Amino acid sequence: AAKLEPRPVLICWPESAIFTYPTYDALTKSWDEMTVAGLYDVAAESGVPILIGALVRERVASGGRYRGDCPKCGASRPMEEGPVKCAACGVWMRVGIEISNSALLISPKREVIGRYDKSHLVPFSEQMPFPWVGPIVASYLKVAKVFEFRPGKSRDPWNVAGTTLGATVCYEAADPDISRIFARNGARACVNLSNEGWFRDG
């Protein structure tokens, strides 16, 4: 696409277009280079920004400390320096990880210059519809916690390709409020990233 004439100013890929997890560290406010190197290479080689859908892993932190999650009972607490055990069951806690269904804007200069996390999540497949449903399902499946995506909050448009853009993911295109908020914040257009492969036959 980058070699077409006239030359494109933005290359868009669909939702969840890659099978790796770009990883963001909320404590250091930086991307794990190993997890985004391939995306950087594509943008640098094309010479234009790319907008791509990906499932983003984020190491959760607040107040200058990582959040620790117990893999056995699901309890969470701020982690001090070094490993810490869960006070409830004595199991070593892990750095908390949250996953979002995201759109990433990658610059040819090898950097992430924009990120939008899907905010209207699909009930049951991306998020439990009510807070009390999760513990019931977890108990039935005999797991500490049911996996859920983290919903996004930002509606800040990006300056790219000579204009200002917003992004939506998959069925968010059916919710005009998201695009309206982007427009009120200055976006002149919204790009929808969708992967219809989820609905393939068979």
Question: What order do the helices and strands come in, and which of them pair?
Answer:
Blueprint: E1 11-12, E2 23-25, E3 30-31, H1 33-46, E4 50-59, E5 61-62, E6 65-69, E7 76-78, E8 94-95, E9 97-107, E10 111-117, H2 133-141, E11 158-160, E12 163-169, H3 176-184, E13 189-193
Parallel strand pairs: 1-4, 2-4, 12-13
Antiparallel strand pairs: 2-3, 4-9, 5-6, 6-7, 6-8, 9-10, 11-12
Structure characterization notes:
The protein is of the alpha+beta class and 202 residues long. The protein is built from 3 helices and 13 strands. The strands form 3 sheets. Strands 1, 2, 3, 4, 9 and 10 form a 6-stranded mixed sheet that branches. Strand 11 and strand 12 form a beta hairpin. The longest helix is centred in the N-terminal third of the chain and has 14 residues. It is globular and about 60 Å long. It starts with 10 loop residues before the first strand and ends in a 9-residue tail after the last strand. The model has no long low-confidence stretch (mean pLDDT 87).
Give the tags.
202 residues; alpha+beta; six-stranded mixed β-sheet; four-stranded antiparallel β-sheet; 3 helices; 13 strands; globular
What is shown here, in short?
This protein has 202 residues and is α+β, with helices and mostly antiparallel strands. It has helices at residues 33-46, 133-141, 176-184; strands spanning 11-12, 23-25, 30-31, 50-59, 61-62, 65-69, 76-78, 94-95, 97-107, 111-117, 158-160, 163-169, 189-193. The longest helix is centred in the N-terminal third of the chain and has 14 residues, at 33-46.
